[in-house]
Write a structure and sequence with these properties.
Blueprint (H helix, E strand, L loop, with lengths): L21 H7 L6 H12 L3 H7 L1 H10 L7 E6 L7 H9 L4 E6 L1 H9 L25 E7 L8 H10 L1 E12 L4 H8 L2 H12 L13 H7 L5 E8 L2 E7 L3
Parallel strand pairs: 1-2, 1-3, 3-4
Antiparallel strand pairs: 4-6, 5-6
Length: 250
């Protein structure tokens, strides 16, 4: 008996949507086959999860604030996505009090536009662009520079990092954290489970991307980018939330 050659029964490019059945339409309606509806549903499921996830991570978030060494009267630079809805702004204001000062830059829509419009930054990664948020800020202005969910969209962290360090006072900390999308370990975990692989593939196929297309900077890459600019650099990971920090030499 000759050897039987196994072939993948899924033609190249097949998505879970393509295998929806007539009985699915009987239960959910004919619009389950409509491409525009599929795109709308997939996008709605995918976006808008940051407030939920960061609230689930409240213990780690408290650790992040402690790493910033915030106190009454601190002057803080904060950048990230969905800052108000995630509760970051209120959290920091409670810690620095009425005498403190918070500069908050929410770049969520810029990040979304960069991904959905397939913008490719100078480093070659999709969804990245030049961070020039600090250009008008004087040197040594802030007691803490805090980046919450604005790591993966910068196209050059050596350049952007130099600016973040420049506006930070000597001896103070820069802290950056990201609930990651598309990191190698996350992709590996998804591929190990057929249900997760199905769900993620179904969503990604209708927002015209793959998990592998999301930009990603590992803590090791951030350490390399900030080499010579920060000391006492360290990192921490919890359930896909990666934290990186270091201190500006005094």
């Amino acid at each position: 008996m000759g050897k039987i050659e196994l072939k993948n029964p899924l033609p190249e490019g097949t998505t879970p949507w393509d295998l929806m059945q007539a009985f699915d339409a009987k239960r959910f309606g004919e619009d389950v086959f409509d491409l525009e509806n599929q795109k709308r549903w997939a996008t709605a499921i995918f976006v808008g999860g940051l407030p939920y996830m960061w609230r689930k991570a409240y213990v780690v978030l408290d650790m992040i604030y402690n790493l910033c060494e915030l106190e009454e009267g601190s002057k803080v630079f904060l950048i990230g996505e969905s800052l108000e809805s995630c509760g970051f702004i209120d959290d920091i204001k409670r810690r620095i009090g009425a005498s403190g000062e918070l500069t908050a830059i929410d770049n969520q829509e810029e990040c979304r536009d960069a991904m959905f419009h397939n913008k490719v930054g100078r480093g070659g990664q999709r969804g990245t662009f030049k961070y020039d948020y600090c250009k008008d800020i004087p040197d040594n202005s802030y007691d803490a520079v805090l980046n919450l969910q604005a790591i993966q969209h910068a196209d050059d962290w050596t350049e952007a990092g130099a600016e973040f360090v420049r506006i930070l006072k000597p001896g103070r900390r820069l802290v950056m954290a990201e609930i990651i999308l598309g990191g190698p370990e996350q992709i590996f975990k998804i591929k190990q489970d057929l249900h997760l692989d199905h769900l993620i593939t179904k969503i990604m196929s209708r927002i015209a991307t793959r998990f592998e297309d999301f930009p990603y900077y590992s803590p090791g890459e951030l350490k390399d980018a900030f080499k010579g600019m920060l000391e006492d650099m360290d990192e921490f990971e919890w359930r896909g939330l990666e934290v990186f920090w270091g201190r500006k030499p005094g």
